Amino acid sequence: MVREPSDRSSGPEEQEGVGEQDGFQRLWTPHRMAYIKGENKPSGPGRDDGCPFCEIPKGTDEDGLVIRRGTAVFAVLNLYPYNSGHLMVCPYRHVADYAELDDAEALELARFTQRALAALRKASGAHGFNVGMNLGTVAGAGIAAHLHQHVVPRWGGDTNFMPVIGRTKVLPQLLRDTRALLAESWPED
Fold it and tell me: Exposed, middle or buried: residue 109 (CB in 10 Å: 0-12, 13-18, 19+)?
C-alpha cells in the first residue's frame, strides 16, 4: 500500500527506505529504556548487589531525588512515575517484606506516608491517591529485594486517552522541580 506523504515528519522511520510512513506522530521517551532493560535493578537479594534504595541515601537529596529523610525511612521520587509526584517511602534497612520491619520502622513508614499525602495535597491539589506495596516479584515489585511503599497522586480525568489509547503518560514537570516542591511542602514533625 502506498501512502501520500504528509507535510510533517515525525522521525527517522519516515525517511525513504527506512520504513513506511503511517501518519502517526510519535512521542519519543528514550529515558524509559533504562526501566525496560532493568538498568539500576539489583543483581541479587543483598544490599551489596546494587540496590538503588540502599545507594540513594548515600548521595545528596537533589541527586537522589530524596524529598525527606527520617530516622528509619526516607521519601524519594519514583524515576518512572505513573503520575507527577509519584513517590515512594523506603526503609533505610534492606528488607524485602513488610513483616520484617521492626516497630519503629513500621511506625515511621506509616507517618511518612501520612506526611507524603499532606505534601502532595498542598503542592498539587491531588484529588485522591493510590497507596500500596508490591511484595515480591510475582506481585509486581520491580525491586522486590527492598521494601518500598508507593504513593501515587490522582486527579479526576488523569486517565484520559493518552495512557489508555496512546500508552503514553504526560508529566508536566521535571523530577528535580517536583522534588523541590514536595520537599518545601512536606509538613514538619
Answer: buried
| Residues that are catalytic | 148
DSSP H helical segments within 18-102, as ranges? Answer: 33-37, 52-55, 61-64
Dihedral, 48, 51, 53, 56 alpha carbons, nearest 10: 80
Using 50, 70 and 90 to split pLDDT, how confident is the model at 80? confident
Per-domain boundaries in the chain:
28-185
CATH of segment(s) 28-185: 3.30.428.10
Q: Which DSSP symbol is given to 67?
A: E
Cell numbers 525513504 correspond to what residue? 16
C-alpha cell at 163: 495512557
By DSSP bridging, strand 73-77 and strand 128-132 are unpaired
Which grid coordinates are listed for 156? 479526576
pTM of the entire predicted model: 0.72
DSSP, collapsed to helix, strand or coil, labels residue 138 as helix
Q: Which helix (H) or strand (E) holds 176?
A: helix 175-185
Residues 151 and 120 sit within 8 Å (Cβ to Cβ): yes
